[in-house]
Amino acid sequence: MDVLEDDTGTYLVGLGQRLKLARQAKQLSQTDIADVLKVSRAAVSQWEAGQVEARLSKLRQAAAYLQISPSWLLTGEGPPFGGGMRAAENTPGAARAAGSARK
Length: 103
Prior knowledge:
The protein is mainly alpha-helical. The chain has helices at 15-25, 30-37, 41-49, 56-66, 70-75, 92-102; strands spanning 2-6, 9-13. The protein has one domain (2-102): lambda repressor-like DNA-binding domains (434 Repressor (Amino-terminal Domain)), CATH 1.10.260. The protein has a two-stranded antiparallel sheet with strand order 1-2. The termini are far apart.
């Protein structure tokens, strides 16, 4: 499990928090994720809060959409973003900007 530190000390990061971290790194809302996965925004919120467990198929879809390692999402092991790219370089907005720059 990943470990992060804040002002009050160290805390563990579970699957829901990893999902939230990846979503925020991509500058996406819960609604954005919900629309792609065809679930409610409330469902995504409950997954992130650890109140409800998502189906494995939905987590795999989320990992693919967020361009993160399914292994990292599920277990916290390994790097979250593949290919040596940082989170900001993997955002949908960055991809659109790169495409516009090539034209």
